[in-house]
Each structure stands twice: as structure tokens, then as C-alpha cells.
Design brief:
heterodimer, A: mainly beta, Immunoglobulin-like, four-stranded antiparallel beta sheet, B: mainly beta, seven-stranded mixed beta sheet, 57% strand, globular
Chain lengths: 111, 116
Amino acid sequence: AQSVAQPEDQVNVAEGNPLTVKCTYSVSGNPYLFWYVQYPNRGLQFLLKYITGDNLVKGSYGFEAEFNKSQTSFHLKKPSALVSDSALYFCAVMGRRALTFGSGTRLQVQP
Amino acid sequence: DAGVIQSPRHEVTEMGQEVTLRCKPISGHDYLFWYRQTMMRGLELLIYFNNNVPIDDSGMPEDRFSAKMPNASFSTLKIQPSEPRDSAVYFCASSLKQGRITYEQYFGPGTRLTVT
């Protein structure tokens, strides 16, 4: 069965600094990986995905994610954080049983 | 496109009552998913449909929960009878898959259910 781990419940970063939100996965076969963001009282919004190809995937709002097969990781990154990036971020992996989501990481960007 | 539409946005009901949540997926999408989100359990997949057919309902917590998709543009999630522990935000999502290509899921705004 597939699984996703987001080891940090919360990440704090100052505005303008780079940010990383960590994700590791476990799945048999080729991984299809996703990042979603959830703002308060909203549904999840798709940020980016890795299906195949370049290990560095670029997505919405300046976010990118780096796929590392040997470390089974798919960390979300942004070179310069904005206060408006503060939200809940979910990593997900596609398996036989649709998407499996991680527990989420709350990103807090301080002005 | 208006995106995934869910109704109602908020529902407050008393224990023992029947609750029906509604979802309209994005036109042309052939997969529909129902999720439940709580602080304690995070985001859980309840059931999903492909071309209106339920594929996996192993996430449905109890027989009190049932879901239907009578056509490509409408799905319901019903809880009967409802219990306080069913209080959560329920999300519907839809996606498109063609061959080996998996497309991202688009989520609705959710229904916040409170059972007193």
C-alpha cells in the first residue's frame, strides 16, 4: 500500500527567505506525486505534480518540487517566501487506491 | 468552468437525522472522489467513482454512510442516522484520467457538517 509522510507539522520561515516543506513517500512502481495547498475554509488547490521527466517540477505561485528517487522524497520549495504563502500544504501519492495524502504541514511565513 | 460545486456549504443537524451532501463535478471529468477532513484523522478518502461506478468504498466508515452517482454530473453522500462523531468537513473532488496519464484532482469548497 502507498503512503506519504510529512515529518513536520509546522514550518516557520521569514518573508523573503527560501522555504522547504518535506515529503517522503512509499509506493510500488513508478510514483505519481502531487502537492496541494489549503487556505482557511477552502478546498485543496493543486500546486504541482511529478509524473515523469525532469526531477525538478515547477508549479503555481512560484513553487517547485524536487523528486529524488533514491531518497523517495518530493520536497516542496520556494526561493522567496511570501506572507500570503501561509497555509496548509499536503503531499500526495497516486496508487491503486486513488490519492493518498500526507497529514499536512502548516507553513507560517512571518513578515 | 465553475469548478467542483458542493452544497450545502454548512450543515448543522441533530444526532439521528439524515444528512445528504451534494456534489457536481467538473464537466468531462470521469473520476469523482469523496473525502472527509478532521483535525484528528486528517484527510481521508471515503469512496471514489469512475464513470459513475463506485470503484472503492473501503474508506466508508460504516453502513450509515452511502454514496451514489446517478449520472456524470451529480453525486450524493448520505449519512443516516448521523452521529456527533460525523462532524467534519466533507470534500468532493473530480479528475480526468486518460490511459496512463493521471490528471490532478480538483476539489470543491467543502461542506462543513456539525452534528449536535
